[in-house]
Design a protein that fits this description.
The protein contains 15 helices and 2 strands. It is mostly helical. It has a single domain, classed as ABC transporter involved in vitamin B12 uptake, BtuC, CATH 1.10.3470. The protein has a two-stranded antiparallel ribbon. Helix 3 packs antiparallel against helix 4, helix 4 runs antiparallel to helix 11 and helix 13 runs antiparallel to helix 14.
C-alpha cells in the first residue's frame, strides 16, 4: 500500500524535472550548459545499462566500455566513409544494435557460467582486445589519434541535439523500468539475491543472465553512438577501462538497482568533473582534480552507503514502517479500551 502511495509522488517529481529540463534551452543561451546537460543525458543512459547488470542481476563487468566503443566507431566510420546523411545514421543504429547484441550474446554464453570475479576479468580482457584492434587498425580507426567527421544538420544544432539526447534518456528509462518490473526482471533480481535457489526452482539462470547482458550491451552501444555524434570525433579512448569505471561510479554513487540513481550519479559526476576542471584554471591545486574527485567519491560512499537514491529509499521505507507500526499500536489500544 505504501509503495502504491509513493509511486504517484515519484512520477510527479519526474514530470516536474522533465518539464524543467525541457525549458532549459529556452531560458539560457549558454552553449556550455546545453553541452554539459547533453553529456549528462548520454552518460545517464550508459550508467543505466550498467545498473541493469550490477544492480538488477548482480553481474560485475569491467569491460562494458566495449559496447560503448562499438556504437561510437560504427557511426563514426559510417559518416566519415559515406557522408553526413540521416540514412547513414539510421543504418549505423541498426548495425550497432545487431553487432552489440551478437558480441554481448557470445561474451555472455562463454563467460557468464563463471564466478563473478572471473567474468569481470574476462570482460576486461575482451574489452582490451577491442582497444588493441582499434589502435592497430589505423587504416580504418586512425589509431589513438582518432578522426573527426561531419554529422547531419539535425545533429549540428545544439538545441536539437539536446532534445534528441533528452528523449533518448526518457525512452531508455521507461523501457528499462518496464523491463525490470516484468516477470523476467523479477527473476533477474531473484538471481542477484540467491542464484542457487533460483536454479533449484527450475530456472535456467544462464539464459536470464545472457538476456540481461544483451539488453545492457545494446543500450550501451546506442549511448556510445550518440556520444560520438555529440563530439563529431572518436578515438580509442571510448574503449578504455576508464569509461567502464565512470559507469560503475555513477551507478554506485547514485544507487545500485534503482535506475534513477544512475541518472543522479551521472549528473553529479559530470557536473563535478566540469566544475573541478574549471577550478583548475584558477588554482594549481585543482589541476589534480582526479584526486579531489576520488575524495568526493569516498565521502559520498561514507554518507550514502547504498548510494544517494538507495539511501533515501531506505529512510523513507523505515519512516513508513514506523508510521504503520504506530498506527497498528493505536488501533490495538482502542480495541483494548472497547473490550474493557
Amino acid at each position: 500500500m505504501n509503495r502504491l502511495k509513493s509511486w504517484p509522488r515519484f512520477n510527479l517529481f519526474l514530470i516536474i524535472i522533465a518539464v524543467v529540463l525541457c525549458l532549459v534551452p529556452f531560458v539560457t543561451d549558454s552553449r556550455t550548459v546545453l553541452i554539459l546537460l547533453t553529456q549528462v543525458f548520454i552518460f545517464a543512459v550508459f550508467a543505466m545499462s550498467y545498473d541493469l547488470l550490477l544492480g538488477y542481476t548482480g553481474i560485475v563487468s569491467f569491460g562494458h566500455a566495449m559496447f560503448f566503443g562499438i556504437g561510437a566507431y560504427v557511426v563514426s566510420i559510417g559518416l566519415s566513409t559515406f557522408g553526413a546523411s540521416l540514412s547513414v545514421v539510421v543504418v549505423s543504429i541498426i548495425i550497432t544494435i545487431v553487432f552489440t547484441a551478437i558480441v554481448s550474446f557470445l561474451v555472455g554464453i562463454l563467460t557468464l557460467r563463471l564466478k563473478s570475479h572471473f567474468f569481470a576479468m574476462l570482460t576486461l580482457a575482451v574489452s582490451s582486445l577491442f582497444l588493441v584492434v582499434a589502435e592497430k587498425w589505423r587504416s580504418v580507426t586512425k589509431g589513438g589519434d582518432g578522426f573527426t567527421f561531419s554529422v547531419p544538420d539535425v545533429f549540428r544544432d545544439r538545441v536539437s541535439f539536446y532534445f534528441i539526447a533528452f528523449v533518448f534518456l526518457i525512452v531508455t528509462y521507461l523501457f528499462l523500468t518496464r523491463f525490470t518490473e516484468s516477470p523476467l526482471g523479477r527473476v533477474l533480481q531473484a538471481v542477484r539475491e540467491n542464484e542457487p535457489r533460483v536454479e533449484s526452482l527450475g530456472y535456467h539462470v544462464i539464459h536470464y543472465k545472457v538476456i540481461a547482458n544483451v539488453i545492457a550491451g545494446i543500450v550501451a552501444g546506442l549511448a556510445g553512438l550518440l556520444y560520438a555524434l555529440s563530439l563529431k570525433f572518436v578515438n580509442t579512448a571510448v574503449f578504455s577501462v576508464d569509461v567502464t569505471l565512470d559507469a560503475l561510479l555513477m551507478t554506485i554513487i547514485g544507487g545500485v538497482g534503482t535506475l534513477f540513481g544512475a541518472i543522479v550519479g551521472a549528473t553529479l559526476i559530470e557536473f563535478a568533473k566540469h566544475g573541478l576542471m574549471d577550478l583548475a584554471k584558477m588554482h594549481w591545486i585543482f589541476e589534480r582534480w582526479i584526486i579531489l574527485f576520488g575524495t568526493i567519491f569516498i565521502i559520498a560512499v561514507m554518507f550514502f552507503p547504498k548510494g544517494i537514491v538507495g539511501t533515501i529509499k531506505d529512510r523513507l521505507k523505515k519512516r513508513a514502517y514506523r508510521k504503520m507500526n504506530a498506527g497498528t499500536e493505536r488501533e490495538n489500544e482502542l480495541i483494548n479500551q472497547d473490550i474493557h
